[in-house]
Structures are given as structure tokens and as C-alpha cells.
Amino acid sequence: MSEINVKSRYKDHDTGARVVEVRLSSANSFETPTRSITSTEHRYKVAINDRLVSTAGLGQGPQTAFPNEIFQISKEHDIEQLRRFAHQNGVFHTAKKDVVALKNAYVDKFLIYYPIFTKKMLYTDNRVIGRENLKTLIDFQVIAAGLTNVSIPESHPNQPFDTFTADLEALSRRAEAYGATQIIPYLDMGMEADLFKQKYEFLINSGYPIIGTAYRSYTQHYPNFRLLQQKDDDVLLVSSGVDRYWHSNWTTAFMHIPNFWGLDITSLESRPTPVAIDPKPILKIKRFDQNSIGIITLGKHNETYGNELHCNCPVCNGKNLDDFIHDYSHDINNNADTHVLDKFCKLHETYASTNEFNNQRPFIKHNETKEYIESHHFINEFLTQLQ
Asked: Final residue of a domain: which of 268, 298, 319?
């Protein structure tokens, strides 16, 4: 196994937020909290990359790599698909090509594969993935895609403890035999609380430096989140599939919430880009606001801040709101297209949201997380409701 060292450095016990140092090699380390880049965000970047270096005097800034150290490749799976994968059908080769391309685009990043199994499949339909299908998932990651960090989910979130540990041991051996250097077990946050605690403590006692978690509703499964909030183990906790918004108000930037429950890395839920139908009015397009940790409309931004963006990310640097709208609301043929503007807002969000995690870190180190929360309207409003 690779020598990845994870050390919890600071823990704010008032909120659960913490700073963890992750050392990937003698020359490569980083601190949490932060967010990973996802394949969805990468595709947004690729879709508009030509515009970022075009005639508007935008320079090369946004074409530089995202600053994040972790890149998450997300792919949705189901049992029937994995059975077909075993025969290496056309869908298998398409998925392989997609993952390999993403791997090659981020050769200098720590890659985590997030195998998505939907809540409907696991909970509503109560489907069990099974060890044979998980073997296929392992083979897809290691043999087909050439990944060295291999994610191993449970056969089912409420899989009994003894079969969970037996599966993990057998699948880990298989992955390592094919060349895996790091095993990343995935736990589902929606499982029964006693079982979640038992599995989590087994993984800690077994010395896994990284544990992936599939995000589920906090309000429905808060005992599992509270357990992590109270823990402070030398492990990197990755929360995958996090919603972009808090669904009660569709404004709070929810990517910034799980850190206050003890989770170190957050990754956005990966959804296919919807087919563009009717364009939104410009002022109803939403943009991440680092001052409030919210995702607000451009109209609301104008009401609150006027024409100033208050952002120096590569997308916004040197621009005010009028410039932002003027430069980014046309397609490559110079036709008005607010869908393009929406993509630029999401690219800004990736940069600005990552930077805001950097801004939060000193507050945790000085045990001043409450002050940080109180100075950012939307996360303050959200977390106050939970007290």
C-alpha cells in the first residue's frame, strides 16, 4: 500500500470543523477542509475553455489547473450495467474511455473514483449489489481504467457487519493483486446508526487513511453525521454526492456545510448537464457569493453589492458585474446565450468556493469557527436552525 499519511491537526469541538494534513509524498501535502474537483466541473471547464483564452483579453488565467489536490471521477452504476460490464460491451468501453480521459487530464492529482448507486436502487428497491458485481467494479477501476486508488462500496448500506468485512478483505486483495496502491472503502451515510458506527470504527481500527462516504439527507440520518462530528481520528473523510443547494431554500451553498459535521473533503453531486430548452433571464442566473456562502441570482447580487463582484478568481479578475455579463453571455459565434453565462457562473463557483475553504482554515486553527459562521449569512442561518 502507498505511504499516505493523514494527521488531524486542529479540531473545533464547538462545531465539529477540523483541519487535517494529508501527506501524499515528501514533496506533496495539503490541508483540509476543501472540496475536490468533479468530472462534472471538469466538463464545464472544457466546454468553455476556448472562450477563456479568446479575444476578450482574458489571458491564460482560467486555463491553469484547478488548485484542488483531489479530483473525483463519478460514474453511476446499477446491477444490470455491472453484469453487462463483465462482458465488456459497448457501454463498458464508452465508460472506460471516459474515465481514462479524465485520469489523463489530471495526472498530477489524487484521484478518487466515486461509484454512484442511487438511493432509489439501494433503499426504495432494496437491491443488493453482491460480491460478484463488486468484483466487476474493481476490475473496471484497476484493469480497464488503470486507477491505482480503488474505491470499494458496500454490497448494501445495511449489509451485516460480518459479510461487509469479508467482502472488503476479499475485494481489497483482488484490487491489490491487479496493482491498486490505495483502497478507499465507501460507507453510505443513510445506513442504520448502530451499523454505521460499527463499520466506521472497524475501518479506523484497521488503519484505512481515507474513508469515502456517500452523502444522504442530514435531517433523515443525522445520528451518523453527529458521530463524525464528535470524532477526531487520523483519517481523511470524503463526502461524495453533496447537493449544490440546501433544498429548503435553494440558496445556501451546501458544499460548505458537511465540514461542520467533521467531514474533510466535499464533492458535488454529479449530474448530467440538462438539455438547454428555454434560456433563463440574465438576472435570474445564480452565482456563488463568497461573502454569504450562498448561491444567489445576479439580480440579487446587484441589489446587495451593486456593480462590484468582490472576486479575484480567474473568471472574475478585473471585472465588474456588467463586464462579467457582457463577456460571458454569448456563444462562440457571438450569439446571445445565457446558458453560456450559467456555465461561467459555475466555473467561478468552483474557484471561489475552493478559495473560501482556504479562508475558513485559519478560523478553525484559532478555534474561531463560530465567528466565521456568524460572518457568513447563509451558513449562519442554516446552522442556527440546527441548534
From this structure: 268
Over residues 78-125, the pLDDT tens digits come to 999 999 999 888 889 999 999 999 999 888 889 999 999 999 999 999
- Quick one: 244 and 322 in the same domain? no
CA distance 22 to 4: 7
Q: Are residues 150 and 106 in the same domain?
A: yes
SS3 20: strand
Q: Specify burial of residue 317 (Cβ count, 10 A radius: 0-12, 13-18, 19+).
A: middle
Task: Tell me the CA distances in angstroms from 357 to 9, 119, 297, one per residue in order.
Answer: 16, 28, 22
Instruction: Please write the tens of the pLDDT for every residue from 270-328.
Output: 765 555 567 789 999 999 999 999 999 999 999 999 999 999 998 999 999 999 999 89
The whole-model pTM stands at 0.93
- Yes or no: say if 170 and 198 are a contact pair by the CB < 8 Å rule: no
Q: Do 317 and 61 form a contact (C-beta atoms < 8 A)? A: yes
DSSP per-residue string spanning 34-91: EE-EEHHHHHHHHHHHHHHTSTTT-TTGGGSPPS-SEEEEEEE--HHHHHHHTTT-HH
